[in-house]
Amino acid sequence: MKNPSARLSWIAALAVTALPAPLVAQGAHYQVEAREVYARIIGFRTAAGQHQTATMADYLAGVLKAGGVPAADVATLEAGGATAMIVRIPGRTAPGRKAARPILFSAHMDVVDARPSDWQRDPFTLIEEGGNFYGRGTMDNKAGVTALVSTILRFTAERLQPARTLVFAFVGDEETGMETTRAIAAHPWVKDAEFAINTDAGGGALDNATGKPLIYLVQGAEKTYATFDVTVTNPGGHSSRPRADNAIYQLAHALDRIEAHHFPVMANDLTRAYLGAMGRAQSGAVGEALRRFAANPDDAAAADTLAQSPEFVGTTRTTCVATMVEAGHAENALPQKATAAINCRIFPGVAVDTVRDELVRTIADPAVHVTVRDTPAASPVSDMRPDVMAAITRAVHIDHPGVAVVPYLESGGTDGKVYRTAGIPTFASSGLFSKPSEMFAHGLNERLPVASFYQGLDHVYRLAVDLGGAGRGRAASSRYTPAQRP
Fold this sequence. Notes:
Helix content is about 35%, strand content about 20%. It has helices spanning about 10-15, 20-25, 30-40, 55-65, 140-155, 180-185, 245-260, 270-280, 285-295, 300-305, 315, 350-365, 385-400, 415-420, 450-470, and strands at about 75-80, 80-90, 105-110, 125-130, 130-135, 165-170, 195-200, 205, 215-220, 225-235, 235-240, 320-325, 335, 335-345, 370, 405-410, 425-430, 435, 445-450. The protein is an alpha/beta fold. It is globular.
């Protein structure tokens, strides 16, 4: 940055005092500044029920305003008991010409909670150890939050004005109800966005053994998330007088049938491109099955092999799995009710009612009732835009020349499904590379490679410059080697 002394708020400055002096003294200023922000926000326990998203949003707003962002370009939103924030960088408009539609960049501030007693390190303190950053949210998704903040500050410091308005969304409840995401999608700054870049998914895979970059994935679609309640009711009675019908046994038989059932194998252009690229990057039986399935989705043997792999089973079919069970009301009484929650991730294009009907046929017991919770909405597939894919490829190849960049279907869920449903095509790209074997988001000892964190900062900045029309070529390759970074 051109004027480093003016870029940190007094809140951010407090974080500097907690960092070892050598770490603060090294690296480009934007990298040092980003690490300070990252350390500070890892300390916010922004899990559901902790009421910390408002505090974190206040902190980030202070950093941005101290960095030169006008207060009029920062807005906070409240929904579902959580706080979100949006920030805009206004675009320039040529006289007599209609302004281009905005581009949305998104990250979420909230995290899945972590109990400090379960972790080897304090989950709410950023710890750098063995080439990794440890802490809750280091990967999901506070690295993305930091990258958005860093990009806004760099634009402001470098006096870059994009050709179109850029809006940066800091979501407050992605891990729960996504109510703030819906509020963001409906906001006047956002609702007309031409497309969105979501930092909560998309990224590169490193070989588990060598650490070599294998492939870079851009999320263009998500499966529909739906939970069904499978319920058996019964008159019950005294446990000393067992009945021929028992709600718990009936439910258990139904669960056995659901466990054994396989939904039909499915494929579309996006999943075939993804699996084919993954097959070219992998060896062994799984690599062969990936290549065969991509060439012919009717290859039953290949599909069966992929069904045994947690990494790929969700890409080839709808999946349903039991996640919770509740039954009985007293130890000396026959159960009057037994219920199981069946969580399904539904392949794009398949209706929720179709899955419910298939569960009913699979259970094959009229005494077992299947109902869907809430009103799950299908997420449309975002057709891969050549301009977006080209920009992502350019950004990735600066650090990882020649790595294949391909679209993929997300088995989990992100804010992208809300944006897509609202009519905003969404492409998830974080710039982060990690080993599949070290994917600990939502789990114990969540971590992110240190080098990946700094690459993610540059990745989002490059996309904002390139796609925003702020001067192609300004987002040049990093001038700092890993040894010079904090």
